[in-house]
Design brief:
- The protein has seven helices and seven strands, in the order ββαββββαβααααα.
- With about 170 residues, the protein is of the alpha+beta class.
- The strands form two sheets. The protein has a four-stranded antiparallel beta sheet with strand order 1-7-3-4. A three-stranded antiparallel beta sheet has the order 2-6-5.
- A hairpin with a 6-residue loop joins strand 5 and strand 6.
- The longest helix is centred in the C-terminal third of the chain and has 16 residues.
Length: about 170
């Protein structure tokens, strides 16, 4: 079910190496609705990417900001001081990030691991999901997801230890 909250398309500048600032008037409806995570569509020329982000208030400016990785900057072909467009949407995803097919399939095939995964905090769930997303090859994602599930069943829940082989 798509969220009702969305911003107008607005222009931002890449003025900081790793953070993007959102004007208060753009983010205020999300803040009023207690939405600290949003789905974002960023567009530069003909390139566009979708991602999720946690938005925090900047105490110095009263504007809002979120982390904008070098990888995302590269995908959009951006350099420091470039301007491009953003649009924000209410995050209606279950985990605050898209679940990789491989991890979902492994969790659905292992009920015990799935139960443990579902009992973790949203932040820990996202850490696991991000750990799988960054793997390039599908078979490697499956192998790592199987390893994570085994570690969950061993009682390991620290994301730093979940990806280690025993």
């Amino acid at each position: 079910m798509p969220g009702k909250l969305k911003s107008k398309v607005f222009e931002v500048g890449l003025l900081d190496k790793y953070q993007l600032y959102i004007p208060n008037e753009i983010f205020q409806p999300f803040a009023d609705a207690k939405q600290s995570r949003v789905k974002i569509i960023a567009t530069n020329s003909s390139k566009s990417i979708e991602f999720y982000a946690a938005v925090k208030r900047d105490k110095n400016t009263d504007d809002y900001k979120f982390m904008f990785s070098k990888e995302k900057q590269k995908q959009l072909g951006l350099d420091l001081n470039d301007y491009f467009e953003l649009q924000l949407f209410e995050d209606t995803s279950k985990y605050g990030v898209d679940m990789p097919e491989e991890l979902e399939a492994v969790l659905l095939s292992d009920y015990d691991a799935y139960q443990i995964f579902e009992s973790l905090t949203k932040g820990r769930q996202r850490s696991i999901i991000y750990g799988i997303i960054r793997i390039k090859k599908s078979q490697s994602k499956i192998d790592k997801a199987l390893q994570v599930c085994e570690n969950l069943k061993r009682g390991i829940t620290n994301p730093m230890d979940l990806f280690k082989t025993n």
